[in-house]
Design goal:
heterodimer; A: alpha+beta; six-stranded mixed beta sheet; three-stranded antiparallel beta sheet; 2 helices; 48% strand; B: mainly alpha; Tetracycline Repressor, domain 2; 10 helices; elongated
Chain lengths: 118, 183
């Protein structure tokens, strides 16, 4: 599970609970100008994820950590696909973040709204 | 849409192209014209548009980015040509027929559903309504801003009613045109 905050001009993603052990990362801070959008996407988890390094991937239980596919680096932290959102980035270490949040609709509105105001 | 969002959603982002972007936006516009925004999932988009999920995100940034591109395309490819035909129409009755009979479902859905919640959608809808107001103003004998706005609104209302009841807009649009054809 991840928490989403807007801190000044940055999007801050905080990985909470035990997931931070699997994801090997507890906090990502990204300038809003490098955030291209956010989308509610329960179907994202069905896609091929590529090669994991590093992190944990127990199919059907948890996808967490960094995955490489088609030359892209994608950060995952999802247990419950129904609560997954996709955050597309530009000029960042990760091409996109696919993370589980408590309230996907609120998270996406927060991010899209902050982008618009940035 | 602002210049900034044109860059974010437009042509400037580097990305591989394995598909016809204009075609994808057109197909997305058709999907969004048929269902509410929340009723179109990313799975629906991937399935109907024949584009990989990753390409979709890479090209448009988000579902909202694709929606805004689709609405912009609707404005440029459907609303503006309609407005040109309306402005050149032979009087209010002919103009009213054109507007009442046009495929404006995406604009109408956007106006009702997304515009109140999304400032960028509201700006695009406002732009489309302005374009229609100007075109209808050009065919009214004594146009004023309030009257042309009311004419546009009434015609769009007819369109909504016809869609909801699967009926024709014709007697209504003729009656409206007579009403506004005041010299």
């Amino acid at each position: 599970m991840a928490r989403i905050d807007i801190d000044g001009g940055d999007l801050v993603v905080t990985i909470e609970g035990m997931d931070k052990l699997w994801a090997l990362k507890s906090r990502l801070s990204i300038p809003l100008t490098n955030v291209r959008g956010a989308t509610i996407d329960p179907g994202a988890v069905k896609e091929p994820k590529g090669i994991r390094a590093p992190g944990a991937h127990l199919p059907g239980v948890i996808v967490a950590g960094t995955f490489h596919r088609e030359g892209e680096r994608v950060f995952w932290d999802v247990r419950d696909p129904a609560k997954a959102i996709v955050i597309e980035l530009a000029d960042e270490r990760y091409a996109r973040l696919i993370i589980q949040v408590d309230d996907p609709r609120a998270a996406v509105e927060l991010i899209e709204g902050a982008r618009h105001g940035a | 849409m602002t210049d900034r969002s044109r860059i974010v959603y437009g042509e400037d982002m580097g990305r591989p192209r394995g598909f016809d972007e204009a075609e994808v936006v057109r197909a997305a516009a058709a999907l969004f014209a048929d269902r509410v925004y929340d009723g179109v999932s990313v799975d629906d988009l991937v399935g109907h548009l024949g584009v990989h999920r990753n390409s979709l995100y890479k090209t448009f940034g988000s579902k909202r980015g694709l929606y805004l591109a689709a609405l912009r395309r609707h404005l440029d490819d459907d609303v503006r040509p309609l407005a040109e035909a309306v402005a050149a129409a032979d009087g209010p009755a002919a103009a009213a027929d054109l507007v009442a009979g046009a495929g404006l479902d995406l604009l109408l859905l956007a106006a009702v559903e997304r515009a109140p919640a999304d400032p960028e959608v509201a700006a695009l809808v406002g732009e489309a309504l302005d374009v229609l107001d100007q075109a209808l103003g050009a065919v009214l004998p004594a146009p004023d801003a309030a009257a042309t706005g009311a004419f546009t609104s009434a015609l769009l209302g007819l369109r909504i009613r016809a869609r909801a009841t699967d009926s024709t807009t014709e007697p209504g649009s003729a009656a409206l045109a007579r009403r506004f054809d005041i010299r």
